[in-house]
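Structure tokens please, single chain.
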Amino acid sequence: MNKNTTNNKTKRTQVAVKNVAFCTAILLVFSIGLSSSALAASNQFVKNMANAGTITIGVDPRVELIGIVFRLAGNPEYGDNSLQSYAKAIERHFGGFSNHAVVRMAVQLRNTRLMSADGPMSLAIYIDHDFRPRKSFEQWPWEGLDFRWEKEETEEFLEKLRQFAVETKFNEFFEAQAPQYEKGILACKTFMTQYPDVFKWFDVFFGVATNDELKLVLGFVNGRGNYGVRFQSGQTSEKYAIVAPLASPGGNPAFMLQQLGITIHEFCHSFTNPVVDKYMKQLRPAGEKLFAAQGQAMRKRGYHNWESIMYETAVRACVGSFARNSLEPMHADYYFQREISHGFLWTKDLTDFLKNYEDNRDSYPTFESFFPEFVDFLDDYTRKATR
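Here you go.
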């Protein structure tokens, strides 16, 4: 959000030409499919296969800018230093701005609204590459924007964010980091080309043929945080997986098998969350019981209410289906073991229940059409578990 829109826009265009065409900055676009020994050879949902478009892989200046602001505000999820050279570059460039007006406001939002994790990232995709709103405030509320953002505060925050971008010369920082970003993009592209068709799974599994844009964003400032957010406006529909690159032994950004599961997880949120929203009232009894049983573990992972547990429960069961059907058994087993360690003890049972959906697609053509059965199973599961 830069006051000097013209100058900043010109600068960003130059960056795009100088590096790789990239979402108005450093973006690498390619169509990927799937072929790897890590994936099962057969696909039992072929009859429901829909056409899949391209996936965009890149680094997004909007994500980096807002992430840096909340890092300076002290949000621990944006304070990881795994990519040490990048963390040091942030400190050198922005260290003197920790008392900027937008940083102080970010601190206030964290303290009063629990603004953290996916909250800042949901706003990042609702601004353009000049850091201005993609939808007018007359259209408020913005569908898909995290509920913690309120209209007047959001408008004020964006104005201060544009000032921060100008005063810190954010564009110069972003341009200087191009070699680092390109290493991450190349690592991700190299890994993902082992999997020709993996992103067709979404249309196949959820039973919806969409022309939505899938955007895999490497969040360099995001530490170990990963987020699934979506933007909707008229005919424009974008689904984002914001995934943090790992650090290789040499300190370079890397992309590995575990991040494939994370990527599937974050994209799944854009498919499952609207369904969960429709059934949230019916999910409440089970959600409250699960949160009461595992609330301590959930809070440590940033889930502070039963509603967030319901979003995560649906996503994790779907990712379990992907793992069971698409990955080698050892990788699927590892996924379910990690779910237990994270407090989601019920993921394997719900994933197994989803086989009823997978095996009866004539009766249940979409995930949403099956979801009432999912709700009933969850109610039954929690009744038995809390006896």
